[in-house]
Amino acid sequence: MIPEHKPMNVMKNVKTASLFEQKSMRGWWPCYVEKDGSRVLAGKVEMTLEVLSEKDIEERPAGKGRDEPNMNPKLDMPNRPETSFLWFTNPCKTMKFIVWRRFKWVFIGIIILLIVLLFVAILLYSLPNYISMKIVNPFSPR
């Protein structure tokens, strides 16, 4: 949750911390924009700052191509959805994840009903022909 904006006069009594004593600090950092000659809070960014000692820098140099990317600091894989739900770019996946999960049994029931109705229609179409053949020639060895 993003903290609410507070006026600058309220922020005078804010507790400060030394990044050199803590070595790392995580928090919401304000981003300001100049608008009509005054600074206006445009948003806040959640960020972690870390101060490394010279020994740490020698052990794990950054930008030298020695480690795999995402090793210092190790970042977790992003938690992204399995698919894009933009229906116009991928309508089949949208149908699968939204419509199919909710109405799966309705679709299966409609398909079974259509198959049964197809068999009944074929029966009603061909039954008069077989009945008339039995009436005309009832003892045929067919």
From TrEMBL:
Entry-linked InterPro entries: Ferlin, Ferlin_C
Compartment(s) where it occurs, according to its Swiss-Prot or TrEMBL record: Membrane
Transmembrane segments: 105-127
GO biological process, one term: membrane fusion
Superkingdom of origin organism: Eukaryota
Protein keywords: Membrane, Repeat, Transmembrane, Transmembrane helix
Coiled-coil regions, chain positions: none
Basic and acidic residues composition-biased segments: 56-69
Ranges where the Ferlin C-terminal domain occurs: 40-135
Region entry Disordered, spans: 56-75
A GO CC annotation given for this chain: membrane
Protein name: Ferlin C-terminal domain-containing protein
Organism ancestry: Eukaryota, Metazoa, Chordata, Craniata, Vertebrata
